[in-house]
Design a protein that fits this description.
mainly beta; eight-stranded mixed β-sheet; five-stranded antiparallel β-sheet; 3 helices; globular
Length: 495
């Protein structure tokens, strides 16, 4: 074995461990489990979008890294820095020499938080390395008491990528949806935005070749991309160069607002977890990006088993066209999750739910995109002693999930509890709360079997009789990454 080959092997392993991206594929015919092993990531990055333009906004940022025996022994660090909102094509920078971090985390296992009032709360960009990188999670929660976008806006800060799907966006009268595009890198990124309505693609030339300057953020109002108001849209964001983070903030004059996160990658089967038991209206939006139409079976995983909603047993999604259906008060007083499966040939789709609680002038909305399963571990920050609901869905087999509550940001001792989720059901619970809690805390979920489980967290903070709430899905927290074993990587390099 020569030195060059050894260097290539080391470089491949180091790159996978540092970036957290997918590992190099094993040679054809090898068993995947034997071909690679999982190691903790050594560096990760997150971006938090600008929370609000309202002077009445109150925003809390919370960051957390779960304690883990598998973490790197190197101490490392984690910090979030403010960046500049890009309003023109002139180069603008964010974090630079002498920039002060907005929020700093120094040790895993204990969350840290910070607050900002009014419309001055910035976009944040940050990174974590060493033992603070595996599973590093940040959450921003914004309360807007009145005016446009009134409600509770919550979102997990997002890792950069190159491809995002947003079913459930809209440009109808009285609604303002902005997509926030954030570039974490030192080179400019170029982004394209495509919109699809019920009749197919919408011409939006101004959505092409949007340049995002290094370490900056661009908000794009969706109504400027299409002249005709659209109630139900699917948006596709792609980076033709560089990488970005993307999130949609939706504000409705009558129904409040929240963040619409990107849906999981197109797949024939989707799970949308955590519809509240008191939802007064649920709207499903789906899109088939390929060349074939999709026919989907619609089921609700309730606390007692799978139910087919009367009158909404199936959904036909035409290729390249956004399909939407109002499911009404789907849950009938019991929390549940929507499961979409192909009725015939499997066709990849993306989907999201718009969920409404309350009635009349006291309504509030949130979004539930289709999400990936929890995987090895999922983490969510900024949970409160009251108003936190955890939803767990096991669509296939009965499984058990260990849920650990961290210490509080100010005080409190960690605790944990294990839940059993029966096959085909959704379990909605008030999660464990740290004893002596002061401040907020984080939750870490660890499945105890190989059966897939899907999860979301709802946070409620009612105000003036309005049931303000936000829902975040909980996919794998990217704490580990597959790294190829040297022997099999060597076989690939020698071919």
């Amino acid at each position: 074995m020569n030195r060059t080959t050894l260097s290539l092997i080391a470089a491949a392993a180091a790159l996978a461990a540092v970036t957290g991206f997918a590992a190099v594929n094993a040679p054809a015919g090898d068993d995947g489990a034997a071909a690679a092993k999982r190691l903790p990531v050594e560096r990760t990055s997150l971006l938090c979008p600008e929370p609000s333009t309202s002077d009445l906004a109150e925003t809390t940022y919370t960051a957390f890294t779960p304690a883990s025996r598998a973490s790197s022994g190197r101490a490392g660090g984690a910090a979030l820095f403010p960046v500049v909102k890009q309003l023109t094509d002139a180069p603008q920078g964010g974090k630079g020499k002498g920039a002060k971090p907005f929020l700093t985390q120094k040790e895993p296992g204990k969350p840290v938080s910070g607050e900002e009032s009014g419309a001055e709360a910035p976009t944040l960009i940050g990174s974590a390395d060493g033992r603070l990188a595996p599973g590093w999670t940040a959450q921003q929660t914004t309360s807007v008491s009145a005016g446009a976008g009134r409600g509770l806006h919550g979102t997990n800060c997002t890792a950069p990528d190159t491809d995002f799907w947003f079913p459930g966006a809209g440009t109808a009268k009285g609604r303002n949806d902005y997509v926030h595009l954030m570039n974490p890198d030192d080179a400019a990124a170029v982004v394209d935005i495509e919109l699809y309505g019920p009749g197919g693609p919408l011409k939006a030339e101004v959505g092409e070749s949007i340049q995002i300057q290094p370490r900056s953020s661009v908000p794009v109002l969706l109504s400027t991309l299409t002249p005709k108001p659209q109630t139900n849209l699917t948006m596709h964001v792609t980076a033709r160069s560089g990488r970005v983070a993307a999130a949609v903030q939706s504000s409705d004059e009558e129904l409040g607002g929240d963040w619409l996160p990107a849906a999981t990658d197109p797949a024939p089967r989707l799970v949308l977890p955590g519809i509240p038991k008191d939802a007064t209206s649920v709207r499903l939006v789906a899109f088939a990006p390929g060349a074939d139409d999709a026919d989907l079976k619609v089921q609700l995983a309730s606390p007692t088993g799978s139910i087919t909603p009367a009158g909404h047993e199936n959904l036909h999604v035409k290729s390249g066209m956004t399909a939407a259906v109002d499911l009404g008060d789907l849950t009938k007083g019991e929390a549940g999750s929507l499961v979409l499966t192909p009725t015939e040939d499997p066709v990849p789709v993306v989907a999201a739910l718009r969920v409404t609680r309350g009635k009349g002038a006291k309504q509030e909305t949130a979004f539930i995109p289709a999400t990936a399963p929890v995987g090895a571990r999922a983490t969510v920050a900024d949970n409160r002693a009251k108003g936190t609901t955890l939803s767990l869905t096991a669509p296939d087999k009965t499984t058990r999930v260990k849920v650990t509550a961290s210490p509080g940001t100010e005080a409190g001792e960690a605790t944990s509890k294990t839940y059993t989720v029966k096959a085909g059901t959704t379990l909605a619970v008030a999660p464990p709360v740290p004893s002596g809690l002061r401040g907020s805390y984080a939750l870490t979920l660890e499945p105890q079997s190989d059966a897939p489980v899907y999860a979301s967290r709802m946070l409620e903070i009612p105000e003036n009789g309005i049931p303000m709430f936000t829902i975040q899905s909980l996919p794998d927290d990217r704490g580990t990454v597959e790294v190829p074993r040297a022997k099999q990587d060597l076989e690939v390099l020698q071919k």
